[in-house]
Amino acid sequence: MTTTLITGANKGLGFEAARRLIAAGHTVYLGSRDVERGRRAAEQLGGRTVQLDVTHDASVAAAVAAIEADGGLDVLVNNAGIATEWTATNTATNTVIGAADVTADLMRQTFETNVFGTVRVLHAFLPLLQRSTAPVVVNVSSGLASLTRVSDPGSRAYAYPGVAYPASKTAVNAITVQYAKAFPNIRINAVEPGFTQTDLNGNTGLQSVEQGAEIIVRMARLGQDGPTGGYFDADGALPW
Q: Is 22 helix (H, G, I), strand (E, B) or coil?
């Protein structure tokens, strides 16, 4: 039996990925900051819940202890993320805080979850993953992480004005490459789900969570002959 942890799994892409992986036979822990929301989501799907706030060391350590006590971990999906520059006040007008207004505090808040949170969880769960016979890590990135795309006037990503979110996901890609080199026995990849209808973007995305979760689920089910250190969407490898 494959045991999987998905952070930020009580809704959106994390919830749909959990549903699909449970259907595929995985034992799935739905990581959630809110205990009650996590419990309800896990009950709905037939999964397990674990309280997990990726921005707090104690919360992550407690999650490690709980999952270790239940037998260990094979697959880690770093899905929890925020887009602070896409605020509640401007989702109605479909606008984003751009370069002229971005602040260090906004960058810091975004990186705390998207970058530092990813490293915090990865670091904490590495001992459990290294005990697995087929360990896998999936880091949920974004098409906006691609420097090639955001600098190409012909790309849809070129028009996105925000700074903090793309920068944080580019950092996630760099983390993915470096961890993959450091731990060649673990399949570690970054994925781009696509512009999906979730709370992250005020449900303005162009595709469903079912479509967005496809690449997350595919990479979570990799065998030990699968790729590592890559960046993929549903159609294949992406340019850095």
A: helix
The mean of the pLDDT values for the chain is 92
Strands (E), the chain: 3-6, 27-32, 48-51, 75-78, 136-140, 187-191, 231-233, 236-237
**CATH code assigned at 115:** 3.40.50.720
Stretch 175-197: mean pLDDT: 91
Instruction: Give the separation between CA 16 and CA 209, rounded to whole angstroms.
Output: 7
Catalytic pick among 11, 29, 160, 169: 169
In terms of pTM, does the model score above 0.85?
A: yes
The total number of structural domains in the chain stands at 1
Domain carrying residue 116:
3-237
The tens digit of pLDDT for each residue in 114-170 reads 999 999 999 999 999 999 999 999 999 999 999 999 999 999 999 999 999 999 999
For residues 6-16, b (16+ Cβ closer than 10 Å) or e, as one string?
Answer: bbbbbbbbbbb
**Would you list the DSSP string of 116-149?**
IHHHHHHHHHHHHHHHSSS-EEEEE--GGG-HHH
- What does the pLDDT read at residue 194? 78
Annotated active-site residue in 165, 179, 181, 231: 165
Cα–Cα distance between 61 and 118 in angstroms, integer? 14
169 is catalytic: yes
| Cα–Cα distance, 200 to 34 (Å, whole number) | 17
What CA–CA distance (Å, rounded) separates 219 from 126? 18
Cα–Cα distance, 207 to 205 (Å, whole number): 6
